[in-house]
Amino acid sequence: MHLSSLIKELLFQYECVTIPNFGAFLTRSLEAKLDDDGTFFPPRKEVTFNQLLSSNDGILANYVAGIKKISYENAIRIIEKEVSVWKKRLQTQTIHFPGVGDIKLNEENKFEFAPWGKVNFELRSYGLHFFKRNKIKEPTFTRKTINVMDEQNKEDLVFTPDQDENKNKLPILKYVAIAAVIVLILGAGYFFSDKYVTEQKIAEQEKAQKQIEKNVQEATFKLEDLSSINLIVSKKPEKEDLILKQDYYSVIAGSFRSMENATRRLEQLKNEGYPAALAEINPEGIHRVAYGRYLDKKEAINMLYFIKYTLKEEAWYLEEK
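Given the sequence above, the corresponding structure tokens read:
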């Protein structure tokens, strides 16, 4: 079993998958978009890699232990051996993570990650693929000129006014008579149908009225048979607390499956002077400890840069919405 093939499976479930002493794969959510060339992309999650996040968060080790049915400690040893092999191979070649991307060493001897980009790790968009919408072409019309008669045919035609006038009167009278008959038929049909609908409405209203009067006459109440009803009235508080869901921007220090470990890390950060707090629990039940939770996004980003690049500590950014 190769650990590189397990990263893809875990990224569908977790936002961050850390490989101890190697680095962490993280997913970033992107909204649906439509490019200028008509290509539509559904909501998706893209993968990035951070070499600085290398402390064990327990996710990979627990997954390996569950698959191989071994202890957590043995799973840690397997991961350490695999990571040692990766670091040796990186000196001369590229490591492939199926469905995720490739990692190689650059000129500065640092990890360089190239995402594969063909797998969407957003479960809400399962089965959706990008497609290109073809533009609708505007129809083109061509005009054609039809010559009904030329000059020669015009000269050959001979009209007799008396005959033409009599012939034209007969079709006109015929069409007028037909139109009059159609108008009479439509008018009669409309009149009788409207009358029928009106009579039916009146009949239904009378029937409903009689039923209501019958129900009222049959309704009798015996007040002496009614049992007493005890009403318990509780005083409503004058003011109710209005709880609004607040968006937070957190700088995460670590993810823990055990609440005890998360609490221990939280107290440690508070003793060091950080405004530490517990962030929103992962959908998989992972407890996340934050260096700080902020209402302002800029303030959280500044804290993240300070921890990573000034203090050289491990941290990653999370938007809680």
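Residues 219-226, 231-243 have pLDDT under 50 and may be disordered. Try to locate this feature in the token string yourself.
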